[in-house]
């Protein structure tokens, strides 16, 4: 499995992340996106309104490189950020048969197309470290897949 149990718990409580894709000219595009962890495939499935027509979808279809970040704060006083960064390959899938969004599409109005992220590198900090001073956080870095 790519993600630790504490990372999976964190993923299940989050719904918004930032997806970075590479454009044909080499510049980067970053977009806030909705996501779901897909336990059946061990991937992150990103969906949204007009996904199949979006620039991020075309970028992924063109080169398949993505980085994805989910982050938040446990508290501001004391300063307690959490972050999960996923680097890997992306697939632009027009009509997935196994999307983690399958039951949510009708209520969201999304078109059904997804970007599927297959983790290759996972970096996390602050997840499952309650009571730990931010300067004592242990950063977890690992190559997977």
Automatic annotation (TrEMBL):
Residues 9-102 form the Pyridoxamine 5'-phosphate oxidase N-terminal domain. This is Pyridoxamine 5'-phosphate oxidase family protein. InterPro entries: MSMEG_5819/OxyR, Pyridox_Oxase_N, Split_barrel_FMN-bd. The lineage of its organism: Bacteria, Bacillati, Actinomycetota, Actinomycetes, Propionibacteriales. It comes from the Bacteria. Pfam families: PNPOx_N. NCBIfam families: PPOX_MSMEG_5819. Coiled coil: none annotated. Transmembrane segments: none annotated.
């Amino acid at each position: 499995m790519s993600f630790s149990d504490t990372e999976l718990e964190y993923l299940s409580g989050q719904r918004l992340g930032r997806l970075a894709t590479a454009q044909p000219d080499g510049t980067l595009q970053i977009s806030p996106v909705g996501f779901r962890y897909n336990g059946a495939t061990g991937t992150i499935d990103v969906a949204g309104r007009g996904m199949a027509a979006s620039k991020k979808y075309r970028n992924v279809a063109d080169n398949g490189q993505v980085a994805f970040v989910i982050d938040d704060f446990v508290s501001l006083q004391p300063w307690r950020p959490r972050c999960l960064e996923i680097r890997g390959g992306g697939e632009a899938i027009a009509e997935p048969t196994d999307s983690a969004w399958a039951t949510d599409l009708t209520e969201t109005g999304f078109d059904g197309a997804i970007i599927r992220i297959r983790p290759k590198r996972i970096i996390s900090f602050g997840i499952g470290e309650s009571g730990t001073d931010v300067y004592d956080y242990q950063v977890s870095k690992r190559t997977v897949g």
